[in-house]
Please model this.
Amino acid sequence: MLKNGRTASRSAWLITFVGVVAVVAAIGLGTMLRLADPLSSPVIPAEDPYTHMAYVREHVHDGNLDPLNEGGNLYPPGLHAFLAATWIYTGADLADIVRFGPVVFGAVGVLGIALLLWRNVGPVAATVGALAYAMAPEVIFRTTMMAPTALDLALVPFLFIGLVETLRGRVAWSGVAAPIAAFLAIAHPWLFLLFGLMGLAFFVLVLVAPISRREDGAITPAGLAASIAVVAGGVGLASFTGPGFLGTLDLVPGISLPLPILALMVITPIILLPYLGLLYAPKRMERLLAWRPSGRKGLFLSVAVAALLAILVVQVTQRALVGGMPDLVDLPRMFGWPILVLGAVGLIAVPFIARPIGHLGAALTMATYPFVVFNPLDSPYWPHRTAVFLGIGLVILTGVAAGAAARLAVRGLQTWNERPVFGKVRLRPSVMAVLPTLLVLPVLGGGVYAGTPDGYPEGWYRLYEPCEEQAMASLAERVEDDPDAVVLTGTWQAKLVMAGYVPGADRLWYKPAFFTASSEREIQDRDDLVYNFQKEDRPLYVLVDRHLRTEHEGADSRFLDHPPWQGPVHYCEGLGGFAGSRTALYTLEVES
Model:
């Protein structure tokens, strides 16, 4: 008995050791893959990160949360609050935080997926899920550019850890899930539209494919009620914090209802129903959640639900392929066939596995898949931006499927040992513990494309070349030291980049008419502006960049080559776009 106990202890230790090493390796691999893009260029990718940098600088500079542009909507401040705190408390350069921060988010997300699957399925699921999250091209892509999506990919796995534990009746875990949900609601509000649909799909799955009571996996009425409160509360908060959620809905001709009020009217009954059930019919609710037919009836129900899920997947996919996928949506390129296949297997196997984590992954997959392959909102952004959240559901299902396959493999190996197939050959328990993991990993890793998705040539686009970026940063330092200085640009690109480096958006002027003036009146207005700066003895810097002529037909900067202008200081020349294109700086000559 003692010997068997020691053997079991060694096997458990070996499983844990191999799992930890594999997860750490997945985090390291994921970090390396995500570093490839920011290390390829010192320029911050795309334009969104400059917007976030500008918001952070403005919020810290002014101490308020006003929109950058007068009359505009307030951008949800969650990400900006996090970046501001990181910037202030670490003392790191904000540009470096924006450039490399998404890589950190990606590593945290891989760890979160591993913890989620290890707690609920086991080390094999954690290893496979972590590797899938680390290597899925679309997940890599979205964690190489600073945006709320990158933050989502770090926090959502931890939100799900709290929700699953809460569903099991450990209601104290709602104290973990609720703050994360609240933060996500003020960082990326539209995410909760997906989570609201996920919650509905989860409840339907619980009814048609009841959760097994084995291994402490049953859902309790109190846990379900608390989880609904967390998700529905996030939807309610998002309806107030998200610009896309604000507005009105004309339910009756002549009567408009504000969307936040409508959201509260819908959400409040959903939150209250479980609590009313707990108050007036606790036993009935418990029996409903614990209901699971046994024997042939249970098998028949599981087969029927699995067949229905398979039919739904096939039908939806077939219709999407016939109609054509939305722009930039290519699921094999985004995730790789191993994740798609294992995820589909995990979805169809949910009725047989019957665990809360499997139902949660299936519910998220079902809630996001139609938005990815159909574009029902007729948006140029929703499908390909929602795809990464579909990927979270697929990764969870991949881990669940791998864990189930590992358990089946262990049972098969145990049968082997009881009745050796080849003479008296037996496998040691330690080999039995590790072998399923080693069998599953090559299947997953061999077909996942680890790199920038093909649909995005050379990764994220850059607004400027390194020499231009460095020059603008240098100009920003000069302007920051002089509170009276103003920078005038003719393109939104130049203003946006400068706003990412200079606090005080009122000192950055976007005036295309300064360069396109042709009539006497327009030229006189330009001369008056110059005269006022000279009279007030204020520095005025005019930034001419290579986007000027492509953005504004007829733009001309040749007048800057004559007094009272000093310059040009050529930052970069021959950048394309038109013959002799350049990015240059001109300074107004004023009396000292």
